[in-house]
Structure formats: C-alpha cells, structure tokens
Amino acid sequence: MKIDLQLVNSSNGVFYAGQVVEAVVQVHTQHEEEIRGIKIKYKGKAKVEWKEGSGEEEREYDAKEKYFEHEQWIISGGHILQPGTTNYPVSFILPPNLPSSFESYYGYIRYNVKAKVDREGKDYKVQYPFTVLSHVDLNMDPNNGMPAQLQESKMICCLCCATGPVSAVFKIDRRGYVPGEAIIINAEIVNNSDRLITSSRVKLIMNISYFADGNTRFEKRDVARLEHGPIDPEGSDTWNGDRLIIPPIPPSPLANCNIIQMEYVIELKADVDNTPFDLEVPLSVTIGTVPLHTYLPPPVPMPELPVDPSGIMMYETGGQPITVQPGATPSVPPPSYGDSVFGNVDVTSERSGDERQMMQYTPQYAYYN
C-alpha cells in the first residue's frame, strides 16, 4: 500500500489567509486491503525555542501557539480497499487572520496537511507542508509611498584623542516595497576623521523578536546587501541611485502572532578601520504582498472607441458595451512565487509516535518581476 497527497488548487503550495485548501488523498493498493479508516488533519502553529547560559546555569525557553487544527475522517467504521488507485477529494477553509509562514533559527510558523490510513499493524502516513501568506496591501498606508531620509554623525575617538566626525545622509525613494522591486538608494558619506573607512554598505535586515516564559530573544538576519569601496581620511563617497533588489521574503509586520515579531530596516553602515566606532544609519521599511499602485507598470493603451454622451460607455462593433469606471484602481499583475532567500528547512515529524519522515520544505513568497 502507498498513500499520496496532492494540493489541487495551488501548484506551488501557496495560499492566502481565508482561502480554501483543496487536496486529493490517493491510496494505491495491489490487492484488497482492510482498513479502519482514512483521516486527514490540517494544522497551523508557531513555536519558539532557545537556550541561555551554560552548565548548571543553562535554561531553556520555549513557547507555542496554535492557529487551527482540523481533523476529518474521510472513511471510518471499517472499509475494504479494492486493488488500484482511489482518490479522495478533501477541502478546508483557512481562517482569515493567519500570520505568514516563517522560518528562522529560533522559531517558526508552519502549516501542513497530513493524511493517514488507519489499519491493523503499521499505519500509512503522508504530510504536505504549505505556505500561507497574510495580505499586506501597501496602498492601505499612505506613508509607504513617502520617501525617507536620515542624517547621522559620529565622532571618532581613539586612545582619548578625538578626530573629526564621520557623517552620512541616507535617503530611500519610499518606505514600502514588495519582493522583486528595487530600493533606490541615495547617500553621501563624509569622512572628516583621520581614519580610513574600509568600506560602506547598505543592507536590508530582518529584525526578529521571540517571546517565551517572560523573556525575549533578539535576532538579526541579513536579507540583501550592496557594498562600496574604501573612503580615505578627509574623503567622501556618494551612492547615486544604487538599486538593492528585494528577494523573496515574508511580508511585514508579522501580524497575528504573539510569540514572534518581525520587521525590516535598511541600513547604511560605514566601517571605520581599527575602531569600534562604525557609523550606522537605519531606516524602517515595510515589505508587502500588494505593490503600491503608483509604481505599477503603465497599462496597455486601449484602442479608440466611440464614447456615448455619459463619457463612460464604449462599444465595439457588434459587441457588448465596455464600462470604464472613472478613477478605478489599476489592476495589480499577479505575482510569481519564489523560494525564500533563506533556503529550505527540515520539517521532519516532531511527534515521537509518528513515523519520522525526513522532509525538506522551502517557504514560497510573493515576488514581482
């Protein structure tokens, strides 16, 4: 006997909160098989875990959060499977307020569907992890379309001898983006110290906070980066429209999760040689799933058609009227979905009673080419 599980309405295993997950459980047998039943389970959960201290002072912190767990018997009360392949369609509506799938070193948010053939002796099981995305429409917050700028300066002190400051002005074209778009970077770094700046770089950083047992753990993950070369003492360097492409990453903020918080910053950093006095200039950005309308590609021009006196009804010869709503929101092109920039993770079954199935899973996130 063999059991398979296929998602029907998503070829890439991506769903949005509130959507229906449709699947087919396939059972293959070479001869008649007596079973007690076939069960399917949908589950969404989050977990964080980390350790602090060492030896006798070591302490482990962990927390869990369950978003849904739905079990359904496809067949129950005993059944005889006939030779061949039998398909059992199933479906489940995802709750509307789910956090996006998320994977990191100290925690995760995961969704999966599992099927099991319950029989005498060994059960047959299969699981299928899938990605859930929450809707983050950048158009809902006007600040996402506004440019951002920050100016910072730092005195470089070494062996009690102060030199001139290192200063920088850092600008980005807006505050909200979707993966696949480019952050346009403009900056100027002025090195008025007597120290070499070995390099300057701009990084998109994911800042994560984990909460468990009254404690908080912080983690930084680099998402993407650009780098410029050294800046001599009394020298300067300019970033003039450099483009930092955003790879597939989860949207922010990580809503509807109480044990993991996540946000993004884009940071300009100047590394001052042989000192701990590096200059850092951070700006907060939002990563969404729906792009700003003002940054959509221009629509394809429509052919000229007769217009009636109302100005909004157009007709094609022998066809149906086409209504154009004044001021209508431009249609958003559908995104592609790409593998998370952080790669795959091991989602081997955690329960000791389960048959431990080694499985690698890579979250998929919206990406606009």
From TrEMBL:
<protein>
    <submittedName>
        <fullName>Arrestin domain-containing protein 3</fullName>
    </submittedName>
</protein>
<dbReference type="Pfam" id="PF02752">
    <property type="entry name" value="Arrestin_C"/>
</dbReference>
<dbReference type="InterPro" id="IPR050357">
    <property type="entry name" value="Arrestin_domain-protein"/>
</dbReference>
<dbReference type="InterPro" id="IPR011021">
    <property type="entry name" value="Arrestin-like_N"/>
</dbReference>
<feature type="domain" description="Arrestin C-terminal-like">
    <location>
        <begin position="162"/>
        <end position="292"/>
    </location>
</feature>
<comment type="similarity">
    <text>Belongs to the arrestin family.</text>
</comment>
<dbReference type="InterPro" id="IPR014756">
    <property type="entry name" value="Ig_E-set"/>
</dbReference>
<dbReference type="Pfam" id="PF00339">
    <property type="entry name" value="Arrestin_N"/>
</dbReference>
<dbReference type="GO" id="GO:0015031">
    <property type="term" value="P:protein transport"/>
</dbReference>
<dbReference type="InterPro" id="IPR011022">
    <property type="entry name" value="Arrestin_C-like"/>
</dbReference>
<dbReference type="GO" id="GO:0005737">
    <property type="term" value="C:cytoplasm"/>
</dbReference>
<dbReference type="InterPro" id="IPR014752">
    <property type="entry name" value="Arrestin-like_C"/>
</dbReference>
